[in-house]
Amino acid sequence: MSTFWYSPGIMLLIFNRISSHVPLKILSIEDGTVLKSFNHLLHRSKKVDFIEQFNEKLLVKQENENLQILDVRNAELMEVSRTEFMTPSAFIFLYENQLFLTFRNRTVAVWNFRGELVTSFEDHLLWHPDCNTNNIYITSDQDLIISYCKADSDDHWMEGNAGSVNISNILTGKCLAKITASSSCPKVDECSSSAGSSKQPDHYRVRSTVAEALEDITALFYDEERNEIYTGNRHGLVHVWSN
């Protein structure tokens, strides 16, 4: 058995762990040729937290061990202290910028492949502790992150299930804009599906407060051409946020 990861032009096959190492093969996507076959050594008694591939870089993390960043072309290995890099719940690789995002305990961080922390965000505390990527959007230029976040403590309306939609610069960590019930908000439209109902059309408009629209968001999307943010909630309502 094996798992595999795709990067532009190559595919990494990760085979089942064998005692103190994991066998790896790098294949050409174009013709299936094996470009390289090698073993990566592991601590025999420690479980593997993750093995991730980004182009020629292999990220390996074992329980209570340092992060290892291996260049599979030349076998160069660097390590990041386990006190600096703790196992995240999810990754997003930024191919345009040669960086990667990590998500852990509602926080987002940006790293490079020298093992250096590039960005920590000043105001981007995610709503979901386990990183629900349905509520996160990265722009095509990979310069902005838009997420459903916890509201600031200064927002007195934050009781219940209301959050905020935060827009931050990935390279600086600065919060550029946010949608909250207490700020000057863009126009919001709301619609809901009524499939199976003979009394309503297939889609109909309803009216709710902005605070209600910011409750229990389960999906988020940004239309970069129209400059509109779409959010959906657990009630099946879709909101369109536009200037």
* Overall domain count: 2
Parts with pLDDT < 50 across at least 5 consecutive residues:
155-159, 192-204
Q: Order of strands across the widest beta sheet? A: 18-17-21-20-19
User: Which structural category do the helix and sheet elements fall into?
Assistant: mainly beta
Mean pLDDT: 82
Describe the biggest sheet? 5 strands, antiparallel
How widely separated are the two ends? 51 Å
Shape: elongated
Approximate helicity band: under 10%
InterPro entries: DUF7899, WD40/YVTN_repeat-like_dom_sf, WD40_repeat_dom_sf
Pfam family, one: DUF7899
Could you walk me through the main structural features you see in this protein, from its secondary elements to its overall organization?
- The chain is mainly β.
- It folds into two domains: 2-83, Thrombin, subunit H; 133-242, no CATH class.
- Helix content is 2%, strand content 50%.
- It is built from one helix and 21 strands.
- The strands form five sheets. A five-stranded antiparallel beta sheet has the order 18-17-21-20-19, with no helix packed on it. The chain has a four-stranded antiparallel beta sheet with strand order 1-2-3-4, with no helix packed on it.
- The longest helix is centred in the C-terminal third of the chain and has 4 residues, at 210-213.
- It is elongated.
- Mean pLDDT is 82; it is low at 155-159 and 192-204.
